[in-house]
Amino acid sequence: MSTTTVAHHDEHQEHPTGIMRWLTTTNHKDIGTMYLTFSLVMFLVGGCMILGIRAELFKPGLQLMNPEFFNQLIGVHALIMIFAALMPAATGFANWMLPLQLGAPDMALPRLNNWGFWILPPSAVLLTLPFTLALFGIGDGALATGWTFYPPLSIQGGLGVDFAIFAIHLLGISSVLGSINIIVTIFNMRAPGMTLMKMPLFAWGWLITAFLLIATIPVLAGAVTMLLTDRHFGTHFFNAAGGGDPIMFQHLFWFFGHPEVYILLLPVWGFIPQILQTFSRKPMYGYKAQVYSLWGIGALSVVVWAHHFFAAGMPVPALLYFMYSTMAISLPLAVLFYCWIRTMWKGSMSFETPMLFTVGWIILFGIGGLTGLVLADVAADAQYHNSYFVVAHFHYTLFAGGIMGIMAGVYYWLPKMTGHMYNEKLGKLHFWLTAISFNVTFIPQFFVGLAGMPRRIPDYALQFAEFNMISSIGAFVLGLSQLLLVYNIISCVRGGQKATDRVWEGAVGLEWTLPSPPPYHSFTEQPVVK
Amino acid sequence: MLSICETQCIAKPNASASVASVCKLLLSLIVFSGLIALGFMHIGAWMVFPFAGLELVLVVLAFVVVLRHRDDYEKITLAEDYVEIEQCVLGKVKHIRFQRYWTRVTLREGENGKTSLWLGSHNQEVEFGRDTMSNAQRDELVSHLKRTLQKLNN
């Protein structure tokens, strides 16, 4: 007879404290918190950059900076906001909420999760370091190509382009590691009884996002590597002087870049319906229709990329194909809008801060979508391309559709994460200031764009002066009002009224069955979904 | 996951993905990403290919790492004169036997409210279903084991 004595121990209940807790943690909630904190910090950094730009554009003429530094600020602002603010925020929510919503004890690959996060801070340093180096006379600042890296400018650019290329590689690795982890978690760690079609919509949104990242990140990685070899190793992939094709870079970049828009939005489209059903106090309308629409949008997003460079010239059949396929995205998106509105229809609605942000989000993101249809039209795009109309459009899509959605998520889940209620009055003030100042900032940009003001210029014709002044005032109010969010988050973390387990009366899902805040190890017992 | 029949109880870790579904998923990812990489290679952007390949290797490895624990299990068999606990981790099977008459089934409560189920005799014990069962399932299993052992021993 062979016997074994196994001592019962609970060492996994213990975890390091202090800095080592955060450096070595494999806990999904700790890593989620780090992602969200990093995202908030980078949101403020990227925001400060754009305030510098709006200060310069407050009046015609050059006031504060030279044109090259202006362009550097624009490029780094975009890269930071997309890769270091929005994407980590969505990944932070995924880390925090997916295991809780799926009934899993943690993410499937916790160590990979830790590495995925800790790659991010060095990449943020790489993006911003050239500014500092330039102060000491090393290099000529950050990349001045805009976030699109288009050659030949990026081939001719200075040290900042190399820094940005390596930063993109690191950010890409981080995104891929996160995506792999999320796919494995969703596929293998769902609670018994939770079939795919019983998953929360947030999990669906993230699953499709992860697939898109897996499909498109290698294309971006290949493109920037080819750019690097063009710059330093004598290749001519994109150098027309050596027989290369600069337009090929645009195809490669936008094959990643267009799905990237949906990569930023799909997780938000996942949790917005959950917020709507919570504050409408009725079941989500059209769950299956929303799942299929998310898949439809994800699939279409990888076949429409060339509408970003209609102006570069392409055969008429290609123009028509990319125009119609781009417009086709509005069909599944219309289904989503219908489902969101039907979820609220005849509901017992209340307008706490998350719901305010969500309703505001639907309206403003709707404007972003409709102006996108205008740009998808080949004939109209020739007029609006490279104008401020485009800038206003993608800020309605990515600030209203992305960041305001993230803010709705922050207010929705903050009490669950911290165990304390945030200050509702400050939250509502934050919403109204954000919504109003956002429109004050970007509606004038539609007008100056329609009137022909090009983007990425530090100086402009006198006819655009008033609208630019209004836009700059709006931007400063928008920027300052975000301090309310920071204050509300910090005060909520430090204390406040105790949050209940369910937090919101109409909240549905496994995450609300746990205490607020959830214990360090979320589900010590496997929940079963019926 | 716990399944109980008269003289046998099996506990397995939860794994919501079947091997077939993971194979289908990986195949579709490989075909989709592969086609994209081949398409770009065709127009001269061959550097997409190694990145896509590397990434797909990582995806496959991630599923291998997770799914290799899929076949882990713990089994209690109540035989004629012994109780056997069989533990399978990563394909390695370990058998632990106690004389049936002397086997004691104990349920203990930990500090965090989580219970633990122990089987043992002669000052030797083994824990069963530490991460694979809920408190309610442990309660159910303890009652079943005690009832069945009593019946068999009489």
Automatic annotation (TrEMBL), chain A:
Entry GO terms, CC: plasma membrane; respiratory chain complex IV
GO MF assignments: cytochrome-c oxidase activity; heme binding; metal ion binding
Transmembrane segments: 31-53, 73-96, 117-143, 163-189, 201-228, 248-272, 292-312, 318-341, 353-376, 396-414, 426-447, 467-490
GO BP field: electron transport coupled proton transport; oxidative phosphorylation; respiratory electron transport chain
Bilayer disposition of the protein: Multi-pass membrane protein
Main location: membrane
Top-level division of the source organism's lineage: Bacteria
Known catalytic reactions: 4 Fe(II)-[cytochrome c] + O2 + 8 H(+)(in) = 4 Fe(III)-[cytochrome c] + 2 H2O + 4 H(+)(out)
Record domain Cytochrome oxidase subunit I profile: where: 22-530
Functional note: Cytochrome c oxidase is the component of the respiratory chain that catalyzes the reduction of oxygen to water. Subunits 1-3 form the functional core of the enzyme complex. CO I is the catalytic subunit of the enzyme. Electrons originating in cytochrome c are transferred via the copper A center of subunit 2 and heme A of subunit 1 to the bimetallic center formed by heme A3 and copper B.
Name this polypeptide is given: Cytochrome c oxidase subunit 1
UniProtKB/TrEMBL annotation, chain B:
Keyword terms of this UniProt record: Membrane, Transmembrane, Transmembrane helix
Keyword Membrane carried by entry: yes
InterPro entries: DUF2244_TM
Pfam families according to UniProt: DUF2244
Ranges annotated as spanning the membrane: 21-41, 47-67
Annotated protein name in UniProt: Uncharacterized membrane protein
